[in-house]
Specification:
single chain; mainly alpha; 2 domains; 78% helix
């Protein structure tokens, strides 16, 4: 059984996830789609979209990937590998962070992480776009949704639902 492979991948991604799940999307994509071929680019984008629509962290996508690889046990193992190592690291770092509250390196460290996390998040968006934007209609839907979210104060969840309904009408049965 290949359960050890998702454990190795998601445990490493777990501890590298500074700035949230979007920061590790490029590496997750490289591991899951490019290296191991467990999912196609389109499947990866769909799984990530489903994880984002469900309550909880976006990295529940690890459970969906684990399920695709090895069924229910794969989902449990992948999700555990994704969340437990990070929780242990954060628990340990939180104590150090509090202990050095007055240290001058803290704000410098935080400022240094911001551009790194933003860059990784943009790369993750580009990777998801490659898998999800597979024709003119999907590009138009994405551009309209982005314009509405950036230009109005509408709830992004509502925009996503409307874009999903538009996609369902344009692509029935996909």
């Amino acid at each position: 059984m290949i359960l050890w492979q998702p454990v190795g991948i998601f445990a490493v991604l777990s501890v590298l996830g500074f700035g949230g799940g979007n920061a590790i999307l490029p590496q997750m994509y490289a591991d899951v789609v490019t290296q191991h071929h467990w999912l196609t680019a389109a499947e990866f984008a769909r799984f990530y979209a489903l994880a984002r629509l469900s309550p909880g962290p976006a990295m529940t996508v690890s459970a969906l990937i684990g399920y695709a690889v090895a069924g229910f046990s794969g989902a449990v193992v992948a999700a555990t590998a994704m969340f437990v190592p990070a929780a242990v690291v954060v628990f340990g770092l939180a104590h150090a962070w509090d202990r050095f509250q007055e240290h001058p390196w803290r704000p410098i460290f935080v400022r240094a992480l911001v551009p790194i996390v933003l860059g990784l998040s943009w790369v993750g968006t580009i990777i998801l776009g490659r898998g999800a934007l597979d024709g003119p209609a999907t590009v138009i839907i994405a551009l309209i949704a982005a314009a509405v979210m950036l230009g109005t104060k509408l709830n992004p969840a509502l925009v996503v639902v409307v874009a999903g309904v538009a996609g369902a009408f344009l692509f029935p049965g996909s």
